[in-house]
Design the sequence.
């Protein structure tokens, strides 16, 4: 079922992108998208949503969508392409009803259907998968899976990747998928340079290279391994202790941006509380205490309101308060009052993190929400929610969106068995899917 709804979602999103042209005419047909009439739809010709799922629709991976592929996508949206999820597939004994056991059996089947097959990907059957043959996640993580960096994935590398995802070679914190220093140190000079490093080792090279000499020693490598095993990076216990003197390389009792590295550099401005361009030992200790849980307290209004004028300006705001300033400043006067500040605090605690209401968004109380009033997801999906395309979201359209979101849950046996007789009939099965399709259309 999960696979069915994932595919339905993709097809629905893509096909909805084809529904209306700028002139209001249907753009659902192949010919109207094939602008140069060459018999295929290229990525440039595809609409934004179709482009997003282009690789999935382009089943033969030739870089264009032909009419057959386009029709297959449409059929999938209509439900004609979901043969595996038909009623008959659930009803294994053909008695006209789906029992709980049959329902669970089909769910398990769909959970296991998505396994990637090496032979399937190895299009020319030469025993290796090249970048040209790889697709999706296999292509995205190609360099990581290609452990010997020879430009192709062998059956051994493919199997290692599969085992890792099964949990046999990548169990969190147990070190099973152990990276070997000798394996990475290709020239056997007892150090790993940036040229030799790959994957996460390359990504976090500067962090692992604690003495910043441009290479990783066996000691630094072991420290990194211990940290991942939980011996040197236990949350809140301070074992992987950052030392001020270690970072302050010129021993002038302050850390500049040039000396800072990793997380210290990333959050430099936040740690540098007095904004003087350097981190003092007191600021450094405050940061450490915060991570230990001793100083990670919610800021008070008075603390942020540095000039004590009873309001927080953008110049005074920092971190998340600055990032979400416009959202917190509900009256849009350019400042955050103590009332607005308290509201966001309560929201963060979960006391006011309730469902968004129409009245909350309709700031000018004119009975409709304009794009200028919309925020977040409402703004992102504005055109879809604005069903009559009049440039405003009415209360009815807003409620339809909320209702659709409520019904967007993964179905259980009980949800389909509406009469509660312990089995799903063909009528119940079809009724649920028709309702689901209708909600998707409204969304």
Sequence:
């Amino acid at each position: 079922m999960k696979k069915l709804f994932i595919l339905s979602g993709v097809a629905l999103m893509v096909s909805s992108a084809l529904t209306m042209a700028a002139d209001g005419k249907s753009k659902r047909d192949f010919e109207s998208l094939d602008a140069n009439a060459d018999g295929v739809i290229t990525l440039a010709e595809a609409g934004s949503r179709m482009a997003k799922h282009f690789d999935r629709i382009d089943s033969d991976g030739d870089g264009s969508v032909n009419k057959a592929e386009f029709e297959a996508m449409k059929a999938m949206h209509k439900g004609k392409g979901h043969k595996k999820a038909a009623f008959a597939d659930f009803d294994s004994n053909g008695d006209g009803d789906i029992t709980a056991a049959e329902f669970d059996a089909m769910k398990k089947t769909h959970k296991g259907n998505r396994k990637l097959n090496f032979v399937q990907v190895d299009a020319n059957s030469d025993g290796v998968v090249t970048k040209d043959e790889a697709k999706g996640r296999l292509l995205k993580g190609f360099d990581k899976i290609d452990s010997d960096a020879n430009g192709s994935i062998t059956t051994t590398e493919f199997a290692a990747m599969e085992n890792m995802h099964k949990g046999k070679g990548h169990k969190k914190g147990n070190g099973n998928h152990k990276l070997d220093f000798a394996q990475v140190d290709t020239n056997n000079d007892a150090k790993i340079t940036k040229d030799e490093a790959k994957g996460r080792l390359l990504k976090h090279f500067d962090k692992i290279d604690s003495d910043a000499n441009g290479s990783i020693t066996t000691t630094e490598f072991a420290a990194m391994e211990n940290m991942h095993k939980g011996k040197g990076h236990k949350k809140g216990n301070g074992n992987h202790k950052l030392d001020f003197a270690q970072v302050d390389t010129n021993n002038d009792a302050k850390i500049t941006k040039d000396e800072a590295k990793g997380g210290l550099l990333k959050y430099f401005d936040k740690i540098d509380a007095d904004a003087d361009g350097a981190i003092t030992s007191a600021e450094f200790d405050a940061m450490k205490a915060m991570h230990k849980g001793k100083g990670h307290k919610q800021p008070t209004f008075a603390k942020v309101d540095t000039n004590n004028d009873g309001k927080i300006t953008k110049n005074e705001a920092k971190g998340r308060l600055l990032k979400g300033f416009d959202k917190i400043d509900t009256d849009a006067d350019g400042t955050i009052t103590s009332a607005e500040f308290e509201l966001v605090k309560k929201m963060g605690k979960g006391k006011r993190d309730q469902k968004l209401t129409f009245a909350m968004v309709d700031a000018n109380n004119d009975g409709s929400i304009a794009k200028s009033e919309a925020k977040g997801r409402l703004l992102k999906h504005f055109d879809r929610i604005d069903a009559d395309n009049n440039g405003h979201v009415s209360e009815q359209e807003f409620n339809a969106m909320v209702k659709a979101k409520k019904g967007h849950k993964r179905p259980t046996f009980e949800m389909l068995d509406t009469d509660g007789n312990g089995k799903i009939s063909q009528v119940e099965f079809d009724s649920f899917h028709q309702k689901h399709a209708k909600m998707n259309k409204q969304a």
In short: DSSP finds 29 helices and 14 strands in the chain.
